[in-house]
Specification:
This protein has helices at about 5-35, 40-70, 80-110, 115-145. By secondary structure, it is an all-alpha fold. The protein has one domain (about 5-145). The chain is flat and about 50 Å long. The mean pLDDT is about 85.
Length: about 140
């Protein structure tokens, strides 16, 4: 595996782990309790958890990339046309998913849904787009472009 492929796999795993825990904690209570959950109380809690997820994701990324760079010091800075094309294709596919979630979040805003759901829809779109992008890149690296 190249440095870029390992980096992509690391970030995919980190995003799935960190945001899987976030969405399980934040969305678990409203979905389990149904209409009786007060999302206005849940919003400050989700805000604190969002900051925690960003810190955790950055820490995992820094530590993981240091390890990958130490193990692959020869190819850490090399990037060829294949890497650029795979990055571009991943960005296109992720952007499509992000667009769908953006339209969904705008729809929620238009029907005056709670800020809690709008914010988490936007965050879900960003996370889903990154996951689609990373999976797409891994597939392209494995298959070849």
């Amino acid at each position: 595996m190249s440095f870029h492929e390992k980096s992509n796999a690391l970030m995919l795993g980190a995003i799935v782990l960190v945001y899987g825990v976030y969405f399980a904690l934040v969305l678990g209570a409203p979905l389990l309790s149904g209409a009786g959950y007060n999302t206005e109380i849940g919003l400050p809690i989700s805000n604190v958890l969002m900051i925690g997820t960003v810190i955790a994701l950055v820490a995992i990324a820094i530590f993981g990339h240091i390890v990958i760079a130490l193990l692959n010091h020869k190819e850490a800075g090399s990037e060829d046309e294949r890497d650029k094309l795979i990055e571009m294709r991943g960005d296109q596919r992720g952007g499509l998913v992000l667009g769908f979630f953006a339209v969904g979040a705008m729809g929620l805003a238009m029907i005056a849904t709670s800020h809690f759901w709008i914010v988490n829809t936007i965050l879900g779109g960003l996370v889903a787009a990154e996951i689609v992008k990373a999976v797409s890149k891994l597939i392209d690296y494995r298959r070849g472009v």
